[in-house]
Structure to design on (468 residues):
């Protein structure tokens, strides 16, 4: 049986590291894309955060083409992102610019990677946010960026998006992930409502095997209750 | 009766010029923001397209503060924008970057101007696109940018967005505007389904007078049939 291959965009974040480990433990070839290398991956592509959007795309596309050496990816997972608050009264563009770079640049570059290197029947997963389905006046830049990711997902799930045939493009919307940082900053929260990283990593692995796949173009909420996580299509 | 004041972002585009003229003809003080001055306006703020998002915001905020000399705006209208096609297969980030600059930078800077200089009870109008309510696989960057503008509008129409009290923030979604360029490129189209620029300019003027205002946060479709235009709330 041939090796399966995944690219994890944001492979040094908490969720990204969990994905890299889980795919590696299941004998996938794993490429990590982030500002810093992930030593657990088979190959790490480091992004220069000072480079332009277009140059970042060019650099990532060239690096993954070299690393794949003619092979195809079976999955592209973008779990890069960030958060910034703020309304329109002060430095809106600064917050919006940061959110755009962290969530949208990474998502479109992942889409470009998928369009150019995904095998037919592969999948692309992006990361959205439930809050952005409505207005987000206290975090305007964040909401705009995530709304753009949602709409990008709908585009990629439509015919003639440029993705290979039978591929799936979806966005996941976690509520709160059970990460060390979240435990540190919200020490008194109810952790049984937080989504374990292992659940998300296993879900991606299943999709990679062609199991339990949602419809392409879906925006998926991950709701965790009593430590059980369920997927709901918006 | 005191003078009313409006800022038109994109005051050198076809719709922008129509708005500048119409407000001027109705004795408003008019500021135009664009890459080039609009001589018909009371003041023109020129944007350096090479400057960063944050710097463009800073420069426009400083210039309008100077021009207003302590007065307030009654309306901020953003009709800047552009269009680019393309799916995920080729140079997605290039198209997305251009669309972001043309539609989203202009919209967030207009929101910043409104948050800082709009009088209570004033209004902000942005420009969205009906197509972006769904996936737009053949124009992915455009769809993302307009989806972000729609979500921005919902944020600005919510409490604590930073806009002054009793103000209104909406986005208009024209289908096809009756401009000289559109007549040139689509010479055989049915012009009776195109929205006249004068209709849009008069609608803004009415909102400026406090007449026929839609609910804040609304995304509004402009549908023209038999040369009659109707406003529908999405």
């Amino acid at each position: 049986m041939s090796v399966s291959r995944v690219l994890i965009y944001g492979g040094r974040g908490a969720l990204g590291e969990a994905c890299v480990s889980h795919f590696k433990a299941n004998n996938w070839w794993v490429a990590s894309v982030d500002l810093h290398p992930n030593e657990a991956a088979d190959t790490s592509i480091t992004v220069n955060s000072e480079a332009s959007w277009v140059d970042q795309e060019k650099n990532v596309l060239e690096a993954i083409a070299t690393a794949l050496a003619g092979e195809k990816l079976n999955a592209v997972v973008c779990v890069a992102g960030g958060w910034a608050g703020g309304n329109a009264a002060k430095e809106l563009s600064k917050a919006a610019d940061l959110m755009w770079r962290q969530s949208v640049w990474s998502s479109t570059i992942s889409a470009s990677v998928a369009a150019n290197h995904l095998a037919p029947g592969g999948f692309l997963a992006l990361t959205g946010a439930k809050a952005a389905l409505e207005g987000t006046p206290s975090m305007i830049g964040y909401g705009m960026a995530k709304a753009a990711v949602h709409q990008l997902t709908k585009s990629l799930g439509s015919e003639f998006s440029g993705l290979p045939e039978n591929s799936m493009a979806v966005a996941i919307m976690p509520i709160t992930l059970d990460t060390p940082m979240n435990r540190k900053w919200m020490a008194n929260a109810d952790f049984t409502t937080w989504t374990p990283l292992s659940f998300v990593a296993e879900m991606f692995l299943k999709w990679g095997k062609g199991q339990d796949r949602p419809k392409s173009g879906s925006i998926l909420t991950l709701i965790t209750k009593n430590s059980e996580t369920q997927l709901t299509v918006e």
About this structure: The beta strands of chain A are 5-9, 29-34, 43-46, 73-78, 118-127, 168-174, 177-178, 195-196, 219-225, 228-233. The CA atoms of residues 9 and 105 of chain A lie 11 Å apart. Chain A has one domain: 5-233. The two ends of chain A are 36 Å apart (CA to CA).
